[in-house]
């Protein structure tokens, strides 16, 4: 069990445990009262639980262990969260949100780096670290309401500038709203708003 502010979060087997990138996003959320929020890749549910203090939250993960873990943690913290299992936007087809949160799998990886376990999905970004990020960016606009916002976590290991450029090309106003240096990489929160 870990503590974050007033929350107690159970760390579960086969689920990405909250780390620096999780806390950076949780500390810098721009969720407003009454927002409809989607968190993709919820893991233990920590970010979704923090967002649920103000918003109506749907939390998804490709990892069924994570969906179960997030639901348990929501219960422990008396947070009302809808949890769904599936890849990226599959579980919320046809739905639109005010805010979409994503701590993307951003680490460059090769077959030798993978364990073959479901937890690999939490960090495996493919050879350049962008496989999931690019897929997310391609689909995100179709799930945002007008004036909607995306907050995503990314590492300098997977070309932050390219992400900003792609989002700007899609009409988003983009800024880095938080950043921290960890060992060999910078971790940032990119906030992108649809006009």
UniProtKB/TrEMBL annotation:
UniProt name for this protein: Methyltransferase
DNA damage as UniProt keyword: no
One annotated GO molecular function: methyltransferase activity
Limits of the Methyltransferase small domain: 22-166
GO BP annotation list: methylation
Transmembrane spans: none
Species of the source: Methanothermobacter tenebrarum
Keywords: Methyltransferase, S-adenosyl-L-methionine, Transferase
InterPro entries in UniProt: Euk-Arch_PrmC-MTase, PrmC-related, SAM-dependent_MTases_sf, Small_mtfrase_dom
Pfam family, one: MTS
């Amino acid at each position: 069990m870990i503590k974050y502010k007033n929350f107690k979060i159970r760390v579960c087997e086969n689920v990405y445990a909250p780390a620096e990138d999780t806390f950076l996003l949780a500390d810098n959320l721009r969720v407003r009262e009454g927002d409809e929020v989607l968190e993709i890749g919820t893991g233990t549910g920590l970010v979704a639980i923090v967002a649920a203090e103000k918003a109506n939250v749907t939390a998804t993960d490709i990892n069924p262990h994570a969906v179960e873990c997030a639901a348990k943690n929501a219960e422990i913290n008396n947070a009302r969260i809808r949890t769904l299992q599936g890849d990226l936007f599959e579980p919320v087809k046809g739905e639109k949100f005010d805010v979409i949160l994503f701590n993307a799998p951003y680490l460059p990886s090769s077959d030798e780096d993978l364990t073959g376990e479901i937890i690999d999905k939490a960090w495996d970004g493919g050879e350049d670290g962008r496989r999931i990020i690019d897929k997310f960016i391609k689909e995100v606009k179709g799930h945002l309401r007008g004036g909607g916002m995306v907050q995503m976590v990314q590492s300098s290991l997977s070309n932050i500038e390219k992400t900003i450029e792609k989002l700007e090309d899609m009409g988003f106003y983009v800024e880095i709203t938080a950043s921290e240096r960890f060992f060999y990489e910078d971790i940032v929160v990119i906030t992108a708003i649809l006009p």
